[in-house]
Amino acid sequence: MTIPSMSSLLIESLRGAVTQFELPFEKNKKLILIYGENGTGKSTVCDAFDLLGNGKVGSLDTRGLGVTRKYWPTLGKTFADVKVTLATSGGDCCVSLNKADVVVSNPSLRPLVAVLRRAQILGLIEAKPADRYKEISRFVDVSGIEDSEAALRKLISDKARENEIAVARVGENRSEIQRFWQESRAPVKGADALSWAKQEVLQDRNPLAERKRILDQLITLWDALLAHPQKIAGLDAQLQNSETELVSAQESLSSFQETVARDYMELLDLLKAAQAHFRQHPIQDACPLCGSSENVEGLVEKIDMRIESQGLYRQMEQVKRTVAEKKASVLQNQQRLDDAKESVQKDTQALQVYCCRNDIPPDITMPAFPLPADTGKWSDWQITHQPSRDAWSNASEAIVEDRRFIATLSESLKVLELNERNAKEFDALLPHLKKILELVEGERKKFTDTILAGLSTRVGELYEAVHPGEGVNKIGLALDSAKRASLEITTEFGGKLDTPPQAYFSDSHLDTLGLCVFLALAERDSPESKILVLDDVLGSVDEPHVDRVIEMIYDVTAKFRHCLVTTHYGPWRHKYRWGWLKNGQCQFLELTRWSFSKGITHSRSVPEAERLRRLLVEPSPDHQAICAKAGVVLEAVLDFLTQLYECNVPRRAGNSYTLGDLLPAIDGKLKKALRVEHRIEDGMGVVTFDVMLLEPHITKIAQIAQIRNVAGCHFNALSYELLDSDAVAFGTEVLALTDALIDHEIGWPRNGKSGSYWATTGETRRLHPLKKPS
């Protein structure tokens, strides 16, 4: 995927951006160096990138403010006023705020941003190992694998515990079977308990089941007889009572009838018969008895009244009903007694017939038959044969107990078999699980060690670039095996391995180490689509190392989408101005003094040679400014040549040299030998070199150098008597010398690896000779 190029960053109402601040990006320059004194707004620019890519303002995090979000807007502005817009060739990506969230428009264009600040360097190096681990956690995040390892360890622990339980249960099962064997009625001597148990379980229990069925049937038939004597006696007593009551009722009826006249009884019977007839056959026109129709009306009612008028009627009816009821009771009780006797005969016959069956085992004792015909005499028979009945019950219960015992024994064998199988499975499974755990742990460690080894190597390479030959490039990054998520940083110091650099390194060395670690980490995470922001990170780096730090940052910048470096370090500003930086890769921006009214402002600073060029082409050139600027540029060029060729210059405190010291140091032999080859490539790719001699420029400059002393350094009356053409000629020669020597897109010819000349990167300039002529 093609990453769109960036054209500008617009910051509105974020922290120091009181007014809109636009940061333009120069085409084909991946590094932008922002210089500014403290309080000019450098951190606000970095915060804008941080908000754009990460949704936060990190510069406030370490200032003890607690929740810092309320301080993001410029004083007097609201969250709704804050906006950061990145303009790219693919469109604009805008980040704004509401009360709770960061809102991103066109999120597909939102860049990756890695921000490093001074406080983070110290945190990365001096923090606790656990906090330090957070910085690399996204590269070595194996939390999922660690969770799997934990689950696997728990599984191993659980299975080991289950194995112990299974082994313990196997022992318990074997002990239980051993006890069953010892308690069995007839244990086989010489056999082991397990073999006995298996043999017992396999035995055919069907004969015992049949024996129990016979015994249970005998018990059922026997018990069926037990209730008969008492039942017969009870029914016989009931019959006798009912017969006695019938006789008494009949006697009462006879006595009542004797006391009542016969003719009354006959008349009463006749009236009752007529009443019954008329209830079934209502009277129509005549009496059915005499055929008369004269007294038909009201005849039925008269009969009823006649019957009711007889006083003894009700008593007689009650006595008759009693006699009828007693007769019915006698018949019912007689029938019950007959049924009971029939049942006795049936049950007695059933027991006798069953006891005579051929399939009853001979060892089962049978009672003697026949039973007495009189159930009242059964008691002696039952007492005589009760031991047989008890023996049947005991034998049946013994079979039940045997069945229960065999079921328990069978279950014990099944549980034993299951636990033995589980124990064997656990014994086979546990080594495999442990092997898998070893493999997973090994792969996880191999993965993390590979990443950390690569990081360590890269940090060492970057650190060696800054501190060549100092012997402190053997940097080690490793996870503490005894702690989770804990990163240790070690180095070799004084021949001692695994030394913590915090104990022996200077602040400058620790700063550069932190920078190298950060850059190595940033390189691993899609650097081609990432904006790298270094916010004033090298304030403690000393002068001898600053050039190498700059060169290292330039080399690393090539891997990133863009790199922004802010600094208040003066030498960086001066090195850029003199063209000592690789200006072709660097955009320089100088922030001016911040104010409440103007906010963040900048001046488009350019190298001093470009300033001189601009002075020379002005319509009304300022000859004094031209002489001053040309003199400063000339001092830088002569300082470069005298150092490169180790020329003799006066030794002076502070190494401060003037043109009077530097120009004579370029002696005649060196002056004649100095030439520069300019690389020229045509449209066909053919490369040629155009040779330019430096002697004519140096000689001409030496002749008119005194103009600089008259007009450039001293404001006196003589400067008003010089012609503008003299100042312009001096500036023109200095600029020509500079253009001949320096590639303003690449830099100075410093590389002497060819063995015969000094060259810029890509050999766009070749400076001869390699050594000063003797």
Give the total of beta strands: 18
Q: What order do the strands of the largest sheet run in, or round the barrel if closed?
A: 7-11-12-3-13-14
Amino-to-carboxy terminus distance: 57 Å
What average pLDDT do the residues reach?
82
Strand-residue proportion: 5-15%
Q: Radius of gyration from the CA trace? A: 63 Å
* 3D shape: elongated
Q: For the report, how would you describe the main beta sheet? A: 6 strands, mixed
Structural class assignment: alpha+beta
Features:
774 residues; alpha+beta; six-stranded mixed sheet; five-stranded antiparallel sheet; 18 strands; elongated
Q: How are the elements arranged and paired?
A:
Elements: E1 6-12, E2 21-24, E3 31-35, H1 42-54, E4 83-88, E5 91-97, E6 102-105, E7 112-117, H2 118-126, H3 129-136, H4 143-183, H5 193-202, H6 206-226, H7 228-259, H8 262-280, H9 299-309, H10 313-355, H11 378-466, E8 476-479, E9 487-493, E10 496-499, H12 501-504, H13 507-524, E11 530-535, H14 543-557, E12 562-567, H15 570-577, E13 586-591, E14 602-603, H16 608-616, H17 623-644, H18 659-665, H19 668-673, E15 675-681, E16 687-693, H20 695-712, H21 724-741, E17 758-759, E18 765-768
Parallel strand pairs: 3-12, 3-13, 7-11, 11-12
Antiparallel strand pairs: 1-2, 1-4, 4-5, 5-6, 8-9, 9-10, 13-14, 15-16, 15-18, 17-18
Helix pairs in contact: 2-13, 4-5, 4-11, 5-11, 6-10, 6-11, 7-10, 8-9, 11-13, 16-17, 16-21, 17-18, 17-20, 17-21, 20-21
Structural description of this entry:
- The protein has 774 residues and is an alpha+beta fold.
- The chain is 54% helix and 12% strand.
- It is built from 21 helices and 18 strands.
- It has helices at 42-54, 118-126, 129-136, 143-183, 193-202, 206-226, 228-259, 262-280, 299-309, 313-355, 378-466, 501-504, 507-524, 543-557, 570-577, 608-616, 623-644, 659-665, 668-673, 695-712, 724-741, and strands at 6-12, 21-24, 31-35, 83-88, 91-97, 102-105, 112-117, 476-479, 487-493, 496-499, 530-535, 562-567, 586-591, 602-603, 675-681, 687-693, 758-759, 765-768.
- It has a 6-stranded mixed β-sheet, sandwiched between helices. It has a 5-stranded antiparallel β-sheet with strand order 2-1-4-5-6, with helices on one face. Strands 16-15-18-17 form a 4-stranded antiparallel β-sheet.
- Strand 4 (83-88) and strand 5 (91-97) form a beta hairpin.
- Helix 17 crosses helix 20.
- The protein is elongated.
- The two termini are 57 Å apart.
- Mean pLDDT is 82; it is low at 711-722.
